[in-house]
Amino acid sequence: MATIVDARGKACPQPVIDTKNAIQQQGTPVITMVDNDIARQNVEKMARQMGLSAEASEIDGGWRILIQPVSSDVLSAVMNDAADAMNNVLPGLDCVPCQTQPAAQAGPTVVVLSSDCMGSGDDTLGRALMKGFVYALTQLDQAPQTVLLYNGGAKLSCTGADTVADLKVLAENGTEILTCGTCLNHYGLTDQLAVGSVTNMYAIAEAMAGAGKVIRP
Alpha-carbon distance 8 to 10, whole Å? Predict the structure, then answer.
């Protein structure tokens, strides 16, 4: 029996996250219902990245997306086509095992939020995008080690911001939330920090310098 995910009326990235969670928790098949074409495309892309098939059909007011394993016939055909293509490009090639060096130890992932808006052009849209981005961080398979907030980003960790709840989820899962003290003071928010702790520019520079990956939305 298929698991039904009704994501109609939900903003990005919720349809993708709800579908991914259903697949991981319940297995396939999963049927996701969405009410806009962008959500349909995003759900289909996510499913295919997971090695699954995604077939969308229009329903009243949106789309119904059936997600299930790729059939063995289709998979076999794809593998055969790939093998034929390699033989045509490299006929008679004798494959020699290669020795690879172990990957260097990667440093921690650090997320830098320097504004309460994501992108530029429309601040209302930018704040909605930032809220969605911070929520998406809570749904990653591996949470970032540190989230750094400075300049306008300092507002995201203060009382009244709609990102506080998701930052608290990250903190509960082990992510360090650090907000620039100078920035809090500049915006008159020193007493309104709602999650994480206050930091300074040296600590911010140190965290970024030691990061294996720095993410800036």
Answer: 6
